[in-house]
Structure formats: structure tokens, C-alpha cells
Write a structure and sequence with these properties.
With 113 residues, the chain is mainly β. 0% of the residues lie in helices and 51% in strands. It contains no helices and eleven strands. Strands 2, 4, 5, 6, 9, 10 and 11 form a seven-stranded mixed sheet that branches. Strands 1-3-8-7 form a four-stranded antiparallel sheet, with no helix packed on it. Strand 7 (67-72) and strand 8 (77-82) form a beta hairpin. It starts with a strand and ends with a strand.
Length: 113
């Protein structure tokens, strides 16, 4: 299987972005998927997870209240809606299929005034 992210960009603090992750080559509706964030020079960290039951989600402390993960199984897509973006949200965001070695190529988000 594979994952392809999109939706990154350069924004100002307080702005919003929606990232998308399209999956292919595996049974998408049954897959738990996560978003990870890798800031420049730092380790990749978990942001959010959505399970096959769409109402079951998990968030890192930094994402709670600002980010929302969702999925559309008809379009094999997982989304990450990010609001009130901060400079520390800058980095590459990766999509990951849980319990598999499947990662996307990442999409760059830059938050700067």
C-alpha cells in the first residue's frame, strides 16, 4: 500500500490548513491512520490517530483543541484540519498506516509572520 499527502503550505500564525492523505493498495476503511509531525532538526512525533471507527480518535496534547482528524472512506482519504496554527507547528507532516511500515512522503507546513 501507499499514502500520498497534500495540502501543506506557508501560512501566518493563527491561520488554518487542511491536510489530506490518500491511501491506495490496501483495505483503507479498516485501517487506522495517523498524522505525525517532524519539526526541523527534531524527531517525528505523533499528532493524531483515527481508527476504523471514525468516532474513535486520539490526539497529542499539542493538537487537542486545535486539530481535528477525520476520514472519508469513499475517497480513501484521511484529513487533518489544523486551526490557530503556531510557528512551532512548522515542519513536515506525514501520514502513517498504523501497525504497518507504510508512510507517505510528507507535506511541508510553514507557519511564519
Amino acid at each position: 500500500g501507499r499514502l500520498v499527502e497534500s495540502g501543506g503550505g506557508s501560512v501566518q500564525p493563527g491561520d488554518s490548513l487542511r491536510l489530506s492523505c490518500v491511501g491506495a493498495g490496501f483495505p483503507f476503511s479498516g485501517a487506522a491512520c495517523s498524522w505525525y509531525h517532524q519539526a526541523p532538526g527534531k524527531e517525528r512525533k505523533h499528532v493524531a490517530t483515527i481508527y476504523s471507527t471514525p468516532t474513535l480518535t486520539e490526539y497529542s496534547d499539542s493538537a487537542k483543541g486545535r486539530f481535528t482528524i477525520s476520514r472519508n472512506n469513499r475517497e480513501n482519504t484521511v484529513y487533518l484540519q489544523m486551526t490557530n496554527l503556531k510557528p512551532e507547528d512548522t515542519g513536515v507532516y506525514y501520514c502513517h498506516r498504523m501497525n504497518h511500515a507504510t508512510w507517505g512522503q510528507g507535506t511541508q507546513v510553514t507557519v511564519s509572520s
